[in-house]
């Protein structure tokens, strides 16, 4: 749910970055949003650990407050700011191919989102490969990790910073709702299907890709919202996995309950 | 009755710890001998786990300091090992028994380093010591309480440390696991390892430990079992809890001069 919170809470960061630099250059906005993303994580952790609030309460308080601040900033400076909440929240993935990078020579090298998200993709993969053991142990048993001399706080903030940057970079092109859907649904589906962390990561990537491709064709065929169709396909895949796991686990239960009779 | 020792393996000096300005441990000053099985005993909320966590550096100290092997914690981290309370982790985490025990080797592994063959052998050896080698590929979500505790013990063993800290290893485990754990503790003690255990059950104290720490916010006693496990000191530790007190005096009669097998 931290991803959900971050995707909303970075709004004031985007607005402030825009007001400060006066441009809608994506790198400036990414920095503004990234800083707010880390601040959000920090506030959530702070309220949970020091304020003894439940984690869902601290998430709720932090992101609604920051998001509201962002909305006020947009409405107060609405004359000067060419940003609208609708676009930030829902994004429009169909416009991504139109926003291309054209080199000085006039050569069109493709949509800017590919370069931005491609960079984020490589960084995230490098982070997961380099820190796999540390991420795993600090998530599973933070106190034990500390007793080994691995800083649970450091790795938690690193992880949350990466969630924050990924969220910010993605929703600039696809909108917050699709980001939240894809942060959670493919991973939840994979969690139902396997109990091995490595397989789970790979499987959730495959499910994410399938949802995106499936959603694209669904949107084409019904001429509807692309983001909506992709999130729906992700939800349907989760539903199929859920039903599949329920049916197969019932079979297993039947076999075990029959065993004592045979023996 | 607080007995200080020469050349202590652990020295706790004037330790106070508080949560939100409310003191949990107050002016605890003790030293512990090496190679002993040490029990930390006291009523609920006495600060037993807090003492353990403070020694392990998991909590901020309000005052005092702790030396392990005459050095601050940071310099001797690789010599100590920790078994947290079983409930402190999410057992639905997607991983296997083998992987959890391998975490015991992570302290020695750096970034990007993969476990070597030697690490795997240590992990298997630790699993066999707790009788769990047959479960190495089992998902941790499919373990019973006793098996979970054995996995945690195996993980601590895989660290190959000198000093072991265990937080209520006997809580909610079956009789077979309790017996297996006690045997393991004795074996470790025979290998001159120091084991410090937060313990709850007064019935078994005299049978399990060589040295006890009686704690109720303040340190009541720290000494060899024959000197520290007395009705007067237990009364002082458990204070006005009358129903408990009668039980305690009965227990002491039974366990006064325990046979150690």
UniProtKB/TrEMBL annotation, chain B:
InterPro entries: AAA+_ATPase, ABC_transporter-like_ATP-bd, ABC_transporter-like_CS, Metal_Ion_Import_ABC, P-loop_NTPase
Gene3D superfamilies (UniProt xref): P-loop containing nucleotide triphosphate hydrolases
Domain ABC transporter: 10-242
Keyword annotations of the record: ATP-binding, Nucleotide-binding, Transport
Domain of life: Bacteria
Matches recorded under PROSITE patterns: ABC_TRANSPORTER_1, ABC_TRANSPORTER_2
CDD domains reported in the protein's UniProt record: ABC_Metallic_Cations
Any Pfam family matching the protein: ABC_tran
SUPFAM superfamilies found in the cross-reference section: P-loop containing nucleoside triphosphate hydrolases
MF term (GO), any: ATP binding
Family: Belongs to the ABC transporter superfamily.
The protein, known as: Manganese transport system ATP-binding protein MntB
Protein's organism: Marivirga lumbricoides
